[in-house]
Amino acid sequence: MTDVDFRQGAYPVSGPQTTNLADILERVLDKGIVIAGDIKIELLDIELLTIRLRLFVASVDTAKKAGIDWWETDPALSSRAARNVMQEENRLLRKRLEELESGAAEE
């Protein structure tokens, strides 16, 4: 940003404003930015491969406001999600074990 001098009748001078990388990064993370692109490989008008790329760069808070929070439910990225997966698996295994034991007791 440019310095402004307000001493005795001096008016702000508008000129080129400089922005450093930290300011740009802060703005991008605060607002978010989406980069999208498609790559298609065709041979004789036959589509062989399509790759769709979508990149969303934002802060965690901005992503949550946009409804994106997959890292909270991915067991590979969240210890809480991994614990929940293990608890659900244990519950199902205990239920199956009870069913097997009650079936063996009836015979």
UniProtKB/TrEMBL annotation:
Among InterPro entries, the record links this protein to: Gas-vesicle_GvpA-like, GvpA, GvpA-like_CS
- KW Plastid (keyword) present: no
A GO CC annotation recorded here is: gas vesicle
Name this protein carries in UniProt: Gas vesicle protein GvpJ 2
Say which family it is in. Answer: Belongs to the gas vesicle GvpA family.
Provide the GO MF annotations for this entry: structural molecule activity
NADP listed as a keyword: no
From the Swiss-Prot or TrEMBL record, state where the protein is found.
Answer: Gas vesicle
> Which key words are in the record?
Gas vesicle
Output the superkingdom of the source species.
Answer: Bacteria
